[in-house]
Amino acid sequence: MPELPDVEHFRSVVQAHAVGQSICRIEAIDPSVLRNCGAAALGRQLHKRRFANTDRHGKWLIVGTSGSTLVFHFGMTGSLEWSSDRDDRHPHTRTVFVTGGGELRYRDQRKLGGIWIAHSREAVNAIIGAQGPDALDLSATEFARALSGRRGAIKTVLMDQSVVAGLGNMLTDEILWRAGVHPARAADSLDVAQRQRIHRSLRSALRRAVADGRIPRDRSWLSGSRDKTAPQCARCGVALHESRIAGRRSLWCPHCQQPLVGTHE
Q1: Does the active-site annotation cover 3?
Q2: Helix ranges, 47-187 (H)
């Protein structure tokens, strides 16, 4: 599932290749991913409009044009790519923005994401809904404020986009493993030192993942063990445990991560 580092990569692709290009036409190969505007209306509104700027908040990508604003969400399998080769489209390409210099392509196998159009900042805010502070810019003070008074498992809290925007299943597991905090630990049971460790882990994990444009699958990362048959902790070698928290598969180390004190399973 695309998380903050992936969406930041998609933003950089648009910024590097599409910004400044004028939209010649839009090919709505699968109009079902257009969430609040039909294909014909979208084409009329954006014809000959120029990609102007990019922004991102959490897992949402916001692309301004010389007219309206495009809002992208990527669900579980979405992506954006740029290509100057008009003959290499992927079978799951759903919408193509054709410019004189190439194509910006929205791909989504499961079609759980989508594309919206907005005519004001207020409309953008209504589309993306209640969002907490973006995880990439989160200061230690803001992080402490975001967690203040929150109940439930710390993993569930971190994945709540209205608390912190941008973190998903893999990143939260990674961050908590690095911080030595069990994912089911009750958020309101954490002391100051534990919250600070989580924040430092969040910052360091995001720096590397954003630089890579994706969550790394290195051997030194918890994410590098996720798909193994018998995963082991990259730090201590102990067999990793797996459980479901907030309905999601959670991976953790029984040795490195703190015991379950005040947990919410």
Answers
A1: yes
A2: 121-128, 140-147, 154-159, 169-179
